[in-house]
Task: inverse folding
């Protein structure tokens, strides 16, 4: 049986990818409704040989919808997700609005698909940096246990939406023309100060908490524990934005639950892990890079090394397309699991 689907934020960086993935993966759709703000109402989007007309998001938009994808920011999810659920939809939410709520499943299908069992209502899609990290670490954790994660991220601007992509492009031109660089979006639209991202690196994603960590860092720390179902796991993150359009990279240090494990043991596990591809051959200069991960579904892992001093410590370099596995693809994979319950 086929389902009626809605995409809220359909004109955005992630929303457009959700539509692409639904079509590419032959998701069993009866109809697709594209929703955005009033500004975009009437805009036409052509995909898969079909032209869709974007509508303004209102509570009634969700009448008859079985699955609603939300990717229009936390405020919009808070405003409309319950309206959609009240009308019988399952919501797959890409924002951080509901991720840490105890009753709401936070799902990466390769890791904790069973959290979806029998669930309706709202399902949360984790933060992009969290998704690629847990997808790569799951097989290691399953086999050897995982005690500690120390991660530094190298995140692309598309994670901050299409306005941030435009900002990087226009600043790059301003730089070439030796014009004054205009910064209005990054590090985050609501921030007091804005800094250039072109030819720069910004160690702030989202706003700061009183602890001195940013909300992005806290998302990675808290969501990882929730997805792995392990509150004892020690996780700490430093999240950094760089002038890359798409593809997040991560330098990840882990301490596993067993000593005497080799790099080859880790490689053997990752070689057969779902959704993971190893690119790791220093002799051939083979390692993952965001430019080559863009447009790909997989999580790429390379630079796997044993820590020189800690007997259970390893270092990995993990790269994935933040709009795909980090967002749209993971959401559609959740929907693919859910259709089994709906029917
Ligand atoms: P719109 O294009 O009409 O502004 P991105 O993450 O790339 O910045 O995209 C944000 C998405 O959220 C866009 O699709 C945007 O639509 C949508 N959006 C923004 N404000 C609203 C709103 N008030 N109601 C519904 N969708 C919204």
Result:
């Amino acid at each position: 049986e086929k389902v009626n689907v809605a995409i809220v934020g359909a004109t955005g960086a992630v929303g457009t990818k959700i539509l692409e993935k639904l079509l590419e993966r032959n998701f069993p759709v009866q109809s697709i409704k594209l929703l955005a703000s009033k500004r975009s109402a009437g805009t036409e989007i052509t995909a898969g040989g079909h032209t869709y007309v974007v509508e303004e998001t209102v509570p009634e938009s969700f009448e008859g919808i079985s699955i609603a994808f939300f990717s229009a920011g936390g405020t919009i999810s808070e405003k409309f997700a319950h309206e959609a659920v009240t009308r019988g939809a399952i919501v797959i939410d890409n924002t951080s609005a509901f991720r840490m709520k105890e009753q709401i499943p936070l799902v990466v299908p390769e890791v904790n698909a069973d959290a979806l069992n029998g669930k309706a209502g709202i399902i949360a899609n984790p933060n992009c940096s969290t998704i690629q990290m847990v997808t790569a670490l799951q097989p290691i954790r399953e086999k050897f246990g995982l005690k500690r994660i120390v991660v530094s991220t190298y995140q692309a601007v598309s994670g901050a939406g299409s306005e941030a992509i435009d900002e990087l492009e226009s600043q790059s031109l301003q730089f070439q023309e030796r014009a004054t660089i205009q910064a209005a979006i990054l590090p985050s639209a609501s921030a007091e100060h804005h800094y250039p991202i072109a030819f720069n690196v910004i160690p702030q994603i989202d706003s700061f908490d009183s602890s001195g960590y940013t909300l992005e860092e806290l998302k990675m720390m808290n969501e990882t524990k929730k997805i792995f179902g392990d509150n004892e796991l020690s996780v700490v993150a430093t999240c950094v934005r760089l002038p890359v359009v798409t593809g997040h990279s991560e330098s990840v240090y882990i301490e596993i639950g067993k000593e005497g494990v080799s790099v080859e043991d880790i490689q053997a596990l990752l070689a057969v892990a779902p959704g993971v591809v190893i690119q790791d051959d220093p002799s051939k200069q083979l390692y993952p890079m965001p430019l080559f991960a863009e447009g790909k579904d997989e999580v790429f892992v390379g630079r796997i090394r044993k820590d020189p001093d800690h007997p259970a410590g390893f270092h990995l370099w993990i790269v994935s397309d933040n709009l795909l596995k980090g967002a749209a693809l993971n959401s559609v994979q959740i929907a693919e699991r859910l259709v089994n319950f709906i029917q």
User: Anything to note?
Assistant: Residues 8-15, 36-37, 39-40, 57, 72-73, 76, 161-163 surround adenosine-2'-5'-diphosphate (CB under 6 Å).
